Structure formats: C-alpha cells, structure tokens
C-alpha cells in the first residue's frame, strides 16, 4: 500500500481568495454557433446582405441576432413613416434619407433612385427575394432584432415608429457580451 | 422499394437564399425520419444543400441534377 500524499494545508494566515466577480446577467446569452450581425449601414445593398445572411443563418439552425444601429436602424422604421424625430435636425435627417426598408438607396449608382429601381427589376426577374420579403421571413424564423437605444435617442425614434416585432432596445455592452460568449460577429 | 416522399418543396427559379429558407421551413413541419424532396434551379444549390445538411444534422439522401434541375432528397433528423 502506498501512502497518499496529503494535500498541503493552506497556512492559517493565507489571504482568503476574493470571490470571482459576478458576471452581470443579461437576457441574451450566446452559445458558440450563434450569429450576431451588427447592422450599421442603411444602404440597399448592405441591407440586402444583412437579410440574406440572417435568414440563411436561421435556416441553418443558428440563433441569429441583429443589432440595429446608426443608419441600419433607419431600415427598421415603418415604411409609411415619412418624418421621424422630435427636433428640427432629427426631422431634417429623416427628410433627407427617407426611413423604411422599402426606401433604401444604393451607395453607388443611386442616380436619384434609378439604381435601386433597376436592382428591384433585376431581382424580380431573377426571383431574388426583396429585403422586405427577407425581413418578414427572418422575423418568422425567429431572428432577433435588437435596436440600439442610443441611436433611438439620437434620431428621436419612438418604439411606435419601428416595425412590429422589434426586441427591447439594448446597448453596446449587450453586443460585446454576445461576442465574448462566442457569437460569430458580422459588421455590415 | 422507392423512397416515400412526405413533403415536397418546389424552389425552381428561386435565387439564394430562398431554396434553403423554404427547405428549412418545410423541414420544421415534418417529423423525424420523414423525407423531403426539393427541386431547385439555383446552380449553387449542390454545395448549399450539402452544407445545410452538414450544419443542421439532417441527412442528404440523394443529390442529382437533370436538365438544369437539381433534386435533393433529405431525411429529417
């Protein structure tokens, strides 16, 4: 029989280890294979990319979350809203770039709407689903849309300005937490 | 014995990502072990359906192409 070494006893005056800092709980907890799209841009082509990747991610069984911030949030204002915001500058911003998923402009070759119109024609011809159709599908498939609170405030957007089915507004900390927990991040 | 197809998805003419999206929606309504037949004309679908099956764990039973129409038979996991 061999003697089993006793574990060394800690010295009586050893400092007591500080308890691990408590990780603040947040309702969105990510797992590896989750996808996190940061939808920052409001151009038609980037909106399209966001919607295609979100629906495909959901179709492939991944939990997809889309954080909507800056110009990306404008896409999720109701199509029929013309002017949003409380003060003159916020109202001017919405007047210069009409919000809503159906009013996106191309970053290049916009030509006063000729570009998006041609893109729409081509998409119909080649049976490419429009961003609006893909957005609706994404919502049906459980993609979570998280508006940015700061952008809501800065642009004077109210919850009733936004399309149905948006999640609670969150901040950058939620986004970073989701990334550190293993979501694949995409910045579009 | 021919395979008994429980559900069909006609995604002919549709572009990415609709064939995959429609397939995922159809599979959700099926029970484990049932077979789904998908028809598509999107040239990327051979690779896409293989990737979809690999990621989701559903089985790709058949994958063929005839006259520009891709046919996939999938078994729900």
Distance between the termini of chain A: 66 Å
The number of distinct helices of chain B, counting runs of at least 4 residues, comes to 2
Radius of gyration of chain B: 11 Å
Number of helices of chain A: 7
Q: Which chain pair has the greatest contact?
A: A-B, 16 and 16 residues
Strand content of chain B: 35-45%
Order of helices and strands of chain B: EHEHEE
Span between N and C termini of chain B? Answer: 21 Å
CATH topology of chain B: Translation Initiation Factor IF3
At CATH level 2, the architecture of chain B is: 2-Layer Sandwich
How many domains make up the 3D coordinates of chain B?
A: 1
Main sheet attributes: strand count, strand direction, barrel closure of chain A: 4 strands, parallel
Strand arrangement across the biggest beta sheet of chain A: 3-2-1-4
